[in-house]
Amino acid sequence: MEMRRVAAALALALSLIFVNLAGQCSGQLQFGFYNGKCKDRNGFQRNVEEIVKQKVKARFSTDTTIVAALLRMQFHDCFVNGCDASILLDVPNGEKTAPPNLSVRGYDFIEEIKTEIENTCPGVVSCADIIVMATRDAVVESDKKSRTGWYPVQTGRRDGRVSSAQNVKLPSPSIPIPQAIATFNSKRLSTIDMVYLLGGGHSVGVAHCGLFQNRLYDFKSTGHPDPTMNTTLLKTLQTLCPQNSGSTNSANLDQDPLKSSSVDKSYYEQIRLGNGILEVDQQLALDSNTRFSVARIAGSNDFSFQFGRAMIKLGAVDVKIDKDGEIRKRCAAVNSPSGNSAGNLFNIFG
């Protein structure tokens, strides 16, 4: 009972704080934007967020990896053209084809949610909003034991009409922390936002050998492994990813075996022990710009609250509203001028 009261209090506090901040952080996005706007064919009002929640809950019950997939999708979408679902478009030379996005997945699931909503109240809910809502609900599913993973999401985004691989410029797994900070700052995200977003996003999911093998044998052409890596982890990863093997094996980003599928603060505890898989993760715990924040988060009890705050800010990056975008009928295709989805128009938006 006590845990439930704490969870309820945190959820209420988060809602109140971000209702007050909504105007200054995201323009015309709103909490509860779709309230009263989704009427089914029988004239009954439907709760859009509840539809998304139930779809995510069902998917999570058979595929827990959907959490990492959606977190990655939202980050990769918002960091390019803003949170406009441009990553979902099937266009020649679109964002999907850019090397950093080749391993992004979950497109089919977002389309599945979109189809159900379109069958309920067509032309109302954007694909961009579905990504943000579904990601939040996946985070909640991953951390149900603590009952504190929920955070409110703002909605009212429109879908973009342009998707180009040339626009995909995402931070690399080995980006220096000062450069990473500058990249996040360019999206109006602070250093502490970055620490929470990287930590939350990398508390679930895996990294394949190719993303960290440079740390295992010849780090920065020294002929030696990365000295910041825990030696026990180093031996484990060298076995997993033999030198010059081209292995496609993968390792959990969160090295706590009991926490690797939940979005929580375990990641910060692990990188303080030298158990960061990616170079950027380990450097978060060592760089003077971020190490004190990492230490504080590792010892705190408000990770979910603060992570939710950072996710709301991420979801407000360069959003499109009103005539700046559209409500796609299918997430993979822009609408035709007549309002129908038309795959043969893709080339004019590539």
UniProtKB/TrEMBL annotation:
The keyword Transferase does not apply. GO terms for biological process: hydrogen peroxide catabolic process; response to oxidative stress. Substrate binds at residue 171. InterPro entries: Haem_peroxidase (IPR002016), Haem_peroxidase_sf (IPR010255), Peroxidase_pln (IPR000823), Peroxidases_AS (IPR019794), Secretory_peroxidase (IPR033905). Its EC number is 1.11.1.7. Disulfide bonds join 38-121, 78-83, 127-331, 209-241. This is Peroxidase. It comes from Populus euphratica. The gene is LOC105114960.
